[in-house]
Design a protein that fits this description.
- The protein has 299 residues and is of the alpha+beta class.
- 48% of the residues lie in helices and 21% in strands.
- The protein contains six helices and ten strands, in the order αββββββββββααααα.
- The protein has a four-stranded antiparallel β-sheet with strand order 1-3-6-5, with no helix packed on it. It has a three-stranded mixed β-sheet with strand order 2-10-7, with no helix packed on it.
- Helix 3 packs parallel to helix 6 and helix 4 packs antiparallel against helix 5.
- The two termini are 43 Å apart.
- About 4% of the residues have low confidence.
């Protein structure tokens, strides 16, 4: 009972803090720039937040979960300040493959002030799904000859059925005795495939960055790295901060590498040895993959 009361108190405190944040800071404005969208069609989403100049804010990046939409790109606009009010805005380009009458999305703003943090969500932005095909035309000219033609049965269907049942029984027996190894080999195939795909994308971004350094490449690479580890280890890396990620990985060089990325992405401070940080994070992902690979091979 005492433990339950503690949980209730913690919940009420979190609720009170969020309620205070909503009343202290202005709610961000989120709206789609079109009122309808087709399946897979890119659509732009405007996100605007007005705040005091002394407040530091962060808006969602490429690693955020935009369900039921998928992230394509974003365009930040410089902060504008007038009459002691600062305005931050960003336009996202998203797409969706969900077939619903209405698609809804709300985004948060992360606020940092005087050592405290708060999260404020916008109201839902709503866009309607527009079908590409609204009418199916019936064309009688496409009909050829629908008259029934009787055919003699020459195939031994009962024998075929018995054969399928026998094969099914053998397959079931094999699966019962070797199911752990079968499942492990199945998982092993997919994690090896995922690692090859991850490494190909990651290395390409590293090469592109060495040719022409851009903050957008760093954001994309860090997002790919987090999503790969999240899928491999079933840990929500995409929603964790750098400090929280280091608790899972517990390596000083991981902390240093992630901090170098953060300085470059959010502060525009690009160190000369950032490629070393890229290489180290790739090695961390490879090590995690090899551990999982060995686990599955030894089952």
């Amino acid at each position: 009972m005492q433990k339950l009361n503690s949980v209730v108190k913690i919940f009420l405190i979190i609720f009170y803090v969020q309620l205070q944040a909503q009343s202290t800071f202005e709610q961000p404005i989120l709206r789609f720039l079109k009122d309808s969208v087709q399946l897979g069609e890119p659509i732009k989403l405007s996100f605007v937040h007005n705040h005091k100049p002394s407040v530091e804010i962060l808006m969602p990046d490429s690693a955020f979960d935009y369900s039921p939409f998928e992230f394509i790109s974003k365009e930040f606009y410089p902060t504008k300040t007038a009459n002691n009010v600062s305005k931050d805005s960003v336009v996202y380009t998203l797409s969706s493959f969900e077939i619903e009458r209405e698609l809804k999305l709300a985004l948060p703003v992360f606020i940092y002030q005087d050592g405290d943090t708060a999260t404020i969500y916008s109201d839902d932005a709503i866009v309607k799904y527009k079908e590409a095909i609204t009418q199916i035309v019936q064309n009688d000219s496409l009909r050829v000859n629908s008259n029934f033609m009787a055919l003699n049965k020459r195939f031994n269907y009962p024998f075929l059925g018995i054969g399928f049942l026998g094969l099914g029984f053998v397959a079931l027996v094999i699966f019962i005795f070797f199911r752990k190894k079968i499942i492990a080999r199945y998982k092993l195939y997919f994690i090896e495939k995922d690692f090859v795909a991850f490494k190909t994308k990651y290395d390409k971004i590293t090469t592109d960055y060495q040719t022409a350094p851009k903050v957008s490449l760093l954001e994309e690479q860090l997002g790919i790295w987090k999503k790969y580890l999240q899928k491999l280890e079933k840990t929500p890396y995409t929603t964790l901060t750098t400090k929280e990620i280091t608790k899972y990985l517990d390596q000083n060089q991981v902390t240093s590498s992630l901090q170098n990325f953060d300085k470059a992405i959010y502060g525009g401070y690009i160190k000369e040895d950032l490629t070393n940080s890229m290489a180290y994070l790739a090695d961390v992902a490879k090590l995690k993959f090899e551990v999982k690979q060995n686990e599955l091979r030894n089952i």
